[in-house]
Amino acid sequence: ILNVEQSPQSLHVQEGDSTNFTCSFPSSNFYALHWYRWETAKSPEALFVMTLNGDEKKKGRISATLNTKEGYSYLYIKGSQPEDSATYLCAFYPGAGSYQLTFGKGTKLSVIP
Amino acid sequence: NAGVTQTPKFQVLKTGQSMTLQCAQDMNHNSMYWYRQDPGMGLRLIYYSASEGTTDKGEVPNGYNVSRLNKREFSLRLESAAPSQTSVYFCASTETVSFEAFFGQGTRLTVV
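The joint structure predicted for all components is written out below.
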C-alpha cells in the first residue's frame, strides 16, 4: 500500500484569503503526481498533472509545485472564492511497472463569503 | 464523447445478494480502476486493470471480483454483499501517458 498523505484534512477560510495544502508521497519510484478537484455530488476532475521535479503549474488563481526528491507537492489558492469550496485530492502514480494510482484522503476547503 | 459511463447510479441490496457494477470508457484508455469512497477515508483502490486481460488487487479487494471484459469495459462484482460494502463506488480510466484519471459518475450502494 502506497502512503499518500494530505494535510490539513479540512480548512475554513474567508473569501479573499489565500491558502495552501500539502501532499506527501513516497520519494522513490516517481512517475507522476496529480491534483484533483472534487465538488460535492460530482466526480473528481483533474487540475494538474505533474511529472518533473521542480514542476510548477498554474491555472487562474490555483497553482501547484512539486518536489520529487523529498516527496511533497503544494497546492496554492490565491484570493479564495466561495466557488473554490471543494475537496482537493492528490494522487500518486509510481510508474516502474506499477499501475497503481493511489489517492490521498483529500483536503476539504470551505470558503466563507 | 461519453467518457466513463458507470451503471447503476443507485442500488440497494440485501445482505447476501450479489450484483455487478458496470463501467465502460470510450477514450481508448489502457488502464481502468475501481475505487470506493467512505467518509473520512478518501478514495481507496479496490482493483485495477493495467491493460486488457490483466487485473490486480488494490488496497481493499476482499469481497470483490473484477472482470476486464475488453479494452472498454471493467466490471466489479459483489458475490455476497455485506453491510460493510455500503459505499460510493467510482470507476476510472487513465490517460496513457500522464495517467490522468477520468471518473464515472459513481454508484451509491447501500447493503441492508
